[in-house]
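Example record used in the benchmark description.
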Amino acid sequence: MSDEQQYPHIERRKSRRFAEPPKRPSYAKFYALALAMLLSVVLVTEYFQGKKPQDFGLQPLQSADDRLDEAPERSAEPAAATASAVYAGEGIILDRRPDGHFWIPLAVDGQTIWFLVDTGASDMVLTPKDAAMLGFNFRDEEYTLTYNTANGEVRAAPVELQFVAYESLEVWNVFATVNEADMPVSLLGQSFLQRLSGFEVQGDRMILRP
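Model output (structure tokens):
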């Protein structure tokens, strides 16, 4: 039995023959093209040699030091301040900000509030705006505390913050006051700091230990 009879579903194709041997390709055009490209590279190199970016209306590239010198200073606003990560065995490391103070964003009963760390303040002190964000709204007779400040006596209302935290710092039931008069920022005072295992300032860093 022939292959055509054994595999009738396979199309049989005849071998293709060349009428004449295929011609070898000519390399003359290839050599001419390569020579033209080499000549172009030489001409372009000679044209640009010794020229500066200014000759073409371009500005020269600045070094990294030049760019740093021209960079704007980092904002000292509280929103731009950041507390560093937790350091094992030490606690939270705060870097002194350009304004000379230490700032920290605390989670207070589900809200994030920026505090300026004030070791000279006896209590945590909330601005009226931050207190309102936590849902506090006081009547005049509820401002029962009086503090002596450089600007005279100020009144405040006592409150208890259920939960205050940042990273590994977690303190429950913290005593605080709400200032009656407006103030630019809330203060992190001793009523919170004394609940920690310790805190200290080392140069431009403050360490808060859980």
